[in-house]
Amino acid sequence: MSENKEPQKFVYDFTEGNKDLKDLLGGKGANLAEMTNLGLPVPPGFTITTEACKVYLDSGDEPAELRDEVSAHLKALEKRMGKNLGQADDPLLVSVRSGAKFSMPGMMDTVLNIGLSDASVVGLAAQAGDERFAWDSYRRLIQMFGKTVLGVDGDLFEEALEAAKQAKGVTVDVDLDAADLKKLVEQFKKIVTRDAGRDFPQDPREQMDLAIKAVFDSWNTDRAKLYRRQERIPGDLGTAVNICSMVFGNLGPDSGTGVAFTRDPASGHQGVYGDYLQNAQGEDVVAGIRNTVPLADLESIDKTSYDQLMKIMETLETHYKDLCDIEFTIERGQLWMLQTRVGKRTAGAAFRIATQLVDQGLIDEAEALQRVNGAQLAQLMFPRFDDAATTVLLGRGIAASPGAAVGKAVFDSYTAVKWSRSGEKVILIRRETNPDDLDGMIAAEGILTSRGGKTSHAAVVARGMGKTCVCGAEEIEVDTKRRRLTVGETVVEEGDLVSVDGSTGKVYLGEVPVVPSPVVEYFEGRMHAGADDADELVAAVHRIMAYADRVRRLRVRANADNAEDAARARRFGAQGIGLCRTEHMFLGERREMVEKLILADTDDEREAALAALLPLQKADFIELFESMDGLPVTVRLLDPPLHEFLPDITELSVRVALAESRKDANENDLRLLQAVHKLHEQNPMLGLRGVRLGLVIPGLFAMQVRAIAEAAAQRKNAKGDPRAEIMIPLVGTVQELEIVREEADRVIAEVEAATGTELKLSIGTMIELPRAALTAGQIAEAAEFFSFGTNDLTQTVWGFSRDDVEASFFTAYLEKGIFGVSPFETIDKDGVGALVRSAVEAGRATRPDLKLGICGEHGGDPESVHFFHEVGLDYVSCSPFRIPVARLEAGRAAAESRGSDSR
């Protein structure tokens, strides 16, 4: 007998949910429910779940039960409010707003004032005692509904609005009176009829139902998908829909709307931060259409509401234990809370706020570590403008998202993307941005707007992406049609260089030189925590990094090939070198020496080439061991794709052909061309390289092992502590490793005997071929350590040539959602990661004390570091600049796993 299952519930009243139901109710719905539970003034309403959206997106239609559930909740809402949706004499109006689990500011759709019609607008005017307010609300509904639900070009409405203002001789929409707005409504309805092929719907329930579907559909708009890819938000979550009874900020000077932050999202400092706009609805603030006043001004405009808001902000920050981003409306002196969420913040603010909350006893150090991430730390390591430079100030706006950005001025997103793809650095300049500008914002180095504040679309999205942004630079007049900006008599044309300082809000003409970040200076040991703003940031970074270092299990090494990089890596906190690429030691002037070795025809020629290389290698290793004294140094034996060390076959062929035509052929060039033809490979990355080269060229690896051993012996005799590890590259079978190991052990023994020095040199291999990963248990019999070369492993698992595919089709794969992120940037856990996991298990089964690391670029990628912690590696190795990022993420991975274990 089958069990009776309760029918799935698709609609929740605000009184039914809580902040922990974000998967089901979306962030907005969950937090509206939480504020309702806290007894805060939230307009009544209900939420349609993300599950309903998923059904709609999968099947193309709403769940069969949804309409009845919505009707029941609407009826309850009407009873509570004492009026019906859109009734002619006293209409209930509602907003229909999106709300996904993760904040996607401006990416999905909202429609306000649902329920207004030709009949109910008159009733609203009578009830409010304000005809202008009613017609203003109606024109907003038609404008939003037309663009969002019916797909009408939004510029058509904007142009009609601008024309109405020009005809009236005013510059802002609040100066239009009821008669003006009534005419505008008629124009807007005609635009809808003409461009949508249907009349604006007068039935309020039809309006609501169509708006709900439009919000569902907005989950898969191009801009929403682009934003999710950028922020790595899964595409299968869906959005909730929030139906909320309307409260009105456009009822006159005693009404308004605003956005508040419990701390400054740009700096992290405590205080009164936000924007307020009198006689306006909420979309006016985030759209940046009218310039706002600072939130602090609300105290003089409406002290009662201001004081109440301050208490609510304190309540929310204490409850959420974090910076809160709040949307509110004041309707004739009555404060209403429309939304709260944990606010997006700049990288610097994230570190400051995390340590402030620890000091205030709201969170512990482990939680503070989870509140920041490696991407934010990397942003803090970017350069800043040189204060001592001579500059030409164009203007000043609001410092919305910090950083120093220099680029060519562009005035639309299409140009920003086009120029960026051509290698140009650009600054996107707009009056205000909107969600359609997202691709241009991603392409730009920085963003500048003449309108809007810290809560405008440009500011919120830029902060989320870590892009430099200055908003509300009012003195700058942006002319997008003529593609230029003007400040007084100064004109900046498209293509002219400008510099934008997101930390101060200043905008400069031309290129301003940059200097190192104070955070980099701290890691370099040139700066210590003090009293000023930069030092305060350094102090916050120092505290969190110290905790990360205490708790992390993964050690962090550097990929470094010379003493200078090694020394810098050590200052950045490297605990050794995980990859020294010896072929990099022979680029430049030494390249010809390797060429002679590869092209040697006789034993004498080969031995002469090796004899010339030995002292150079030994000197290199002595410097490296000295820089990393007391720490492990993994030296990879020569692994050059031959084409990097041989003359270009085309250039050499042309040179020989020209010489023959002049009858002065060079014997050396002819011999060289024959050798290059013989060794030419169609795919050098899969050819004669790595261990294969060591087996084919007698004495090559022996020379390198001897240089390593002699350098280690010399350092040891000089009272140093060299800890060299020899790594054999591109091994595919244990037999290759056994042959090379036998030769290496013999050479090391010879050096020990000759120098009278005991050397403890471990020998291991690089796992960078699928076969090596699959036979790791066998290979571990001859290897004391594995280092995963995930760059090559990714190429060989996917069948990608990195040098070719990133330029040819990766962009299309990312746009189509085949990749969420490039597998060369973040490790492919399902494919490459599965091989790493199985190799770890098999290797340790054979040799329990097998040391395991990774030295591909994934070693410095935040998400990949968490994976390497999970599978049990001992260390990651990355470029020197990424070492602090890897240290932080290794700490976060350890804290995260401890937290999950305790649960």
TrEMBL record:
Keyword ATP-binding attributed: yes
Family matches, as InterPro entries: ATP_grasp_subdomain_1 (IPR013815), PEP-util_enz_mobile_dom (IPR008279), PEP_util_AS (IPR018274), PEP_util_C (IPR000121), Phosphohistidine_dom_sf (IPR036637), PPDK_AMP/ATP-bd (IPR002192), Pyruvate_phosphate_dikinase (IPR010121), Pyrv/PenolPyrv_kinase-like_dom (IPR015813)
Pyruvate phosphate dikinase AMP/ATP-binding domain location: 23-60, 63-291, 298-348
Names of the cofactor(s): Mg(2+)
Cited Pfam families: PEP-utilizers (PF00391), PEP-utilizers_C (PF02896), PPDK_N (PF01326)
Gene3D superfamilies referenced in this protein's UniProt entry, alphabetically: 1.20.80.30, ATP-grasp fold, A domain (3.30.1490.20), ATP-grasp fold, B domain (3.30.470.20), Phosphoenolpyruvate-binding domains (3.20.20.60), Phosphohistidine domain (3.50.30.10), Pyruvate Phosphate Dikinase, domain 2 (1.10.189.10)
Stored SUPFAM superfamilies: Glutathione synthetase ATP-binding domain-like, Phosphoenolpyruvate/pyruvate domain, Phosphohistidine domain
Molecular function GO labels: pyruvate, phosphate dikinase activity
Domain PEP-utilising enzyme C-terminal: 539-890
Catalytic activity, reaction form: pyruvate + phosphate + ATP = phosphoenolpyruvate + AMP + diphosphate + H(+)
Catalytic activity, EC: 2.7.9.1
Superkingdom in the source lineage: Bacteria
Residues of the PEP-utilising enzyme mobile domain: 424-505
UniProt keyword terms in alphabetical order: ATP-binding, Kinase, Magnesium, Metal-binding, Nucleotide-binding, Pyruvate, Transferase
Family classification: Belongs to the PEP-utilizing enzyme family.
Designated name of the protein: Pyruvate, phosphate dikinase
Organism whose genome encodes this protein: Streptomyces atroolivaceus
Gene: ppdK
